[in-house]
Write a structure and sequence with these properties.
Length: 456
C-alpha cells in the first residue's frame, strides 16, 4: 500500500521498488525530516488545519519516531520508498487520523529540498569548526617549531632555507580560504524552500517567515520553481569540499615524503601509523596516505553530481535524488580527514637533527647573488657570477660554505669578509623579513595575524 497508489492499477515491480528506494541513505536525515514536519504541523495549526490536540498528537508521534529510531527500534518496510514516506507511514500507524492531515499543502519536493538543506548546513557548520581546529594545530606547530630551519623546495629540489613554522603557517592561511568557501556554501544553503509545494507554491497561505525562523533558516526562497529545483547548494558544497581536500592532499604528500628514511624530517606518531603484515620493520604513514587518497572521492563526488544535474529540466525530476550519496559521503569523509590530520600534526615528531644534516649549502646561492645586488651589481649579472661559483663548487667538490670569502672574491671583488655571515642559516632566513617572508619577525607576525583571525 503506497501513499500515492490511488491512480495505479497494479503495484510497482519489486525490482523497481528496489531501484528507486532511497531510504538506505536518506534516513541519515531523519532528524531534519522530523523537525521539518513538526514545524510544518505548527504552521498548519496556525491556519486552522489542525486543532491544538491534533498538533500535540502529531508532534509527540513524530518525536516518538525519532526517539525509537535512535534506539534502533524502528522497522522499515520494503515499501517505504524514502525517509519522508517512512516517517509518514509510521506516524499514521501511531496517531491515525491527525497524521493524515500533515501533508496538507506540502510536497515531498519542497520537503526533501528543505531537509537536505538543513542537514547540509548543519554539517558544514560543524566542518568549519573542524577546519579551525586544524588551523589551531598549525599555529601550535608554528609556535613550537619556530627555531627549526628546513630546506624549502621547488621541483622537489632544495630551493631556499625557511622556518618550518613558515611552512605550517602557509597551511593556516590556505585553510582560511577553504573556510570562506565553506562559508559561501553555507550562505546559499541557508534558504528555505518549504512552502514551494510541488513546484507552484503551496495552496495554503501559511507563514513562511515564521517557518524559516522555526527551522533556523535565514531567509525563504523567492520563487517556488527555484525552491524545489535548485541543487546548486549541493554543488557549491561539493566544490568547496573538493577544494579543501585537494589542498589537504598536498600537505599530506609532503608529510609522507618527510617521514621517509631518505628525508627523515618527521616521524608520525605510532597512534597514526600502521605496520606491515609481512615486513616487521615497517611503519607506514597510512593516516596521511589515506587523507591524500581520499581526495579522489571529493573530486569524483563533485563530478558525479554535476554530471547528473546537467540538462535536468525544471523543476523536480527523480535524477535529483542522486544528490544525497555524494554530498553525505563528502561531508562525512571531510569530518574524518580534519579530525585525523589535526591529531597527526599535533603529535608529529620533528627530527631537527636530521633536518640540519640535510640542509644543503647551495640553499644560500640566491643570497650570494642578492649580496652582490645590494653592492650595486645588476641581478642578472649576479646570477651568472653565482652560477659560476656553484659550478666551481660542484667540480672541485668544495662545499659552497667552505669556499671562504677569498675564493669568492676571485669571482667578484664585491665579496668581502662579511659574506661568510650568509652561511649562518639564521642570517639567511632572517634576511627575508619582508611581510610574508620567512624571517622570524615575519613569521611571528603571521602567527599574531592568525590568532586574531581565529578570534573573529
Ligand atoms: N526521495 C526523493 C528525493 O530524494 C524525494 C522527493 C520525491 N519527489 C517526487 N516527486 N517523487 O529526491
Amino acid at each position: 500500500m503506497k501513499m500515492w497508489d490511488g491512480r495505479f492499477s497494479k503495484p510497482s515491480d519489486a525490482l523497481m521498488e528496489q531501484f528507486h528506494n532511497s531510504l538506505p541513505f536518506d534516513k541519515t536525515m531523519i532528524e531534519e525530516d522530523i523537525d521539518g514536519s513538526i514545524a510544518w504541523a505548527r504552521a498548519l495549526k496556525n491556519i486552522g488545519i489542525f486543532s491544538q490536540q491534533e498538533l500535540d498528537e502529531v508532534t509527540n508521534g513524530l518525536k516518538g519516531i525519532l526517539d525509537d529510531f535512535r534506539h534502533g527500534e524502528i522497522t522499515f518496510l520494503h515499501s517505504d520508498e524514502d525517509v519522508h514516506m517512512a516517517v509518514e507511514r509510521l506516524l499514521v500507524e501511531r496517531v491515525g487520523d491527525a497524521a493524515a492531515r500533515l501533508h496538507t499543502g506540502r510536497s515531498r519536493n519542497d520537503q526533501v529540498a528543505t531537509d537536505t538543506r538543513m542537514y547540509v548546513k548543519k554539517k558544514l557548520i560543524a566542518l568549519q569548526s573542524l577546519v579551525e581546529e586544524l588551523q589551531r594545530a598549525c599555529v601550535i606547530r608554528a609556535q613550537s617549531d619556530i627555531e627549526i630551519i628546513i630546506p624549502g623546495y621547488t621541483h622537489l629540489q632544495q630551493a631556499q632555507p625557511i622556518l618550518l613554522a613558515h611552512y605550517w603557517m602557509s597551511f593556516f592561511f590556505a585553510l582560511q580560504r577553504e573556510k570562506s568557501r565553506i562559508e559561501h556554501a553555507i550562505e546559499i544553503t541557508d534558504i528555505m524552500p518549504l512552502g514551494s509545494g510541488a513546484m507552484a507554491g503551496s495552496g495554503f497561505n501559511l507563514d513562511r517567515d515564521k517557518l524559516a525562523s522555526d527551522l533556523g533558516f535565514s531567509s525563504v526562497s523567492y520563487n517556488s520553481i527555484d525552491g524545489v529545483a535548485a541543487r546548486d547548494f549541493i554543488l557549491e558544497s561539493l566544490s568547496a569540499l573538493a577544494s579543501c581536500a585537494i589542498l589537504i592532499s598536498r600537505y599530506a604528500e609532503d608529510i609522507i615524503i618527510w617521514s621517509s628514511k631518505e628525508f627523515s624530517f618527521v616521524e608520525i606518531d605510532d597512534a597514526w601509523s600502521t605496520g606491515s603484515s609481512m615486513m616487521p620493520q615497517k611503519k607506514n604513514p597510512d593516516s596521511v596516505e589515506l587523507i591524500r587518497g581520499k581526495c579522489g572521492r571529493f573530486v569524483g563526488n563533485y563530478m558525479r553530481f554535476a554530471t547528473t544535474c546537467k540538462g535536468v529540466g525544471l523543476t523536480y525530476y527523480k535524477d535529483l535524488q542522486e544528490d544525497k550519496e555524494p554530498i553525505f559521503d563528502s561531508l562525512y569523509q571531510m569530518e574524518m580527514i580534519l579530525k585525523v590530520l589535526t591529531q597527526v600534526l599535533l603529535t608529529i615528531k620533528v627530527k631537527n637533527e636530521s633536518i640540519q644534516k640535510n640542509l644543503d649549502p647551495f640553499l644560500i646561492a640566491t643570497d650570494l647573488a642578492d649580496y652582490l645586488v645590494k653592492k650595486g651589481m645588476p641581478f642578472r649579472q649576479a646570477h651568472k657570477v653565482v652560477g659560476k661559483i656553484v659550478g666551481f663548487s660542484v667540480e672541485s667538490g668544495i662545499a659552497l660554505d667552505k669556499l671562504g670569502y677569498q675564493k669568492l672574491s676571485e669571482f667578484s671583488e664585491l665579496y668581502t669578509k662579511d659574506v661568510e655571515q650568509l652561511f649562518v642559516w639564521e642570517t639567511a632566513v632572517n634576511n627575508r623579513d619582508i611581510p610574508g617572508g620567512t624571517a622570524r619577525s615575519s613569521v611571528d607576525k603571521q602567527v599574531e595575524i592568525a590568532l586574531s583571525m581565529l578570534q573573529q
